[in-house]
Design goal:
Largest sheet: 3 strands, parallel
Strand content: 15-25%
Radius of gyration: 13 Å
Number of strands: 3
Strand order of the largest sheet: 1-2-3
Helix content: 10-25%
């Protein structure tokens, strides 16, 4: 791996309230954490965004959340 390489994790989600927190925590607990996480939400109506916000507030890794209602994975 190139020494100055940056790692971005990009994920699309839709109505993932039942598992998004576990996924984010597992990602943030990796030995080598990503430099940024980009999550595109397709218009979840189950509280997914609130869970993401609550989880990433405890993180030093920048998390960018893009709301794209109607977007397809």
């Amino acid at each position: 791996m190139v020494a100055d390489a940056k790692v971005s994790v990009i994920a699309t989600v839709f109505n993932e309230a039942s598992n998004i927190e576990e996924w984010l925590i597992a990602l943030l607990d990796q030995t080598l954490t990503p430099d940024e996480i980009v999550i595109v939400d397709g218009g979840s109506g189950d509280g997914t965004l609130g869970i993401i916000e609550g989880t990433v507030n405890r993180s030093a890794v920048p998390v960018i959340v893009i709301e794209a209602h109607g977007a397809n994975i």
